[in-house]
Input
Amino acid sequence: MSVVVFPFKREDPDVLLKNVRIAVAHPRVRGVVCIGADEDACFRAAAAAAPEIARATGKQVEVIVQERIGSKRPGKGDGMNTGLRYFLTKTDHKRIHFYDADILSFSEEWITKAEDAADQGYHVVRHYFPRASTDAMITWFITRTGFALLWPRSELPRIEQPLGGELLLTRPVAEALVADPRVQAQSDWGIDTLYTFATVAGGFSMYETYLGVGKLHKLYGTLTDLRTMLIECFSALQSLAEEKVPEGTVHHVEYQGPVSETVKTKIGYNFDGTLALLAQGWTERQLALLDLFPARVRDGLACCRSFPQLGFMDDEAWYDTYRVLLREFQADDPDWQELLFKLWIVRVLGYTVTVALRGYDVAMHHLHGMVERYARRAARAP
Ligand code: DGY
Output
């Protein structure tokens, strides 16, 4: 039997409650816990509705505020880790599911598919789904790239959506994550990176199920919307750079199905608004820090102060840039934060006009190929 956890912060209570009702009705589910970042309006609405849902179904439905567990910015990491602790201390169930509270397309299928894979003996089940070719830009250019550079022979770079918040963990995995101080410290957006990393580093088997319907969550404005997430995801990866990860852990990825035209034609972010960011927020120190990077990256980005250039940041230049960032980036330094943001923006915009423009299928093929090329290069010359 399983527990389902929805971490949330300022979500639409109707969407959250609809998802709670779907989850609690599933025959494998014994209890649902909604974990709010604080007591916002969504929290109050969910807390008011929970007793009635519990009464009607005879199952446990709770709405709680996340504990302060980690040492980074209090965020999603504290929410997920609160869920793990609840699961281990308040229940004796075998499995815990996490789902982001904003999934508009949530259905019992998400739970069933995860349970089916866990029934086959996998320790971890992750859901993946089609995303627009200009969505998932942290996933591709930070997380999968970083995994390929740091642990090229492991399964980490081959995980389809390493930042996905939709997953099932069996009890031994939850125990390992709660016992891992690195995971417990990661209270911010870095938590998904840490869970993914720690499950593979811990040698657990993983199954990725494909959900063609996708998540249908809202897309972004300019890439500024993702700035904090970018910095926290990169810092999380950088903090793990010296760690060892075993090769050859069991990892099965369900073959994907056809992708809808809606996803294929969706634009992930506001291009013009993002382009304008390249000329803003420069300091003398950022310019000086650029000297640490290869000449074409330094000169290309410096030019963007007056005239945007994108073509210089190709796959190879991003690999070299990423290596410098792993070595030099300082997470608490505002100039480094801004420089990381700009370098990533150039990378995303450049990819958008040279690759994504050629169509969804070409873009997906390119991105998967890029990660493999990075892994091969890193395996040759760590
Ligand atoms: C990612 O890159 O996966 C983030 O969710 C932003 O889209």
In short: The CA atoms of residues 53 and 61 lie 7 Å apart. Strands lie at 2-8, 29-36, 60-65, 95-98, 124-128, 167-170, 206-210, 251-253. Residues 334-354 form the longest helix (21 residues).
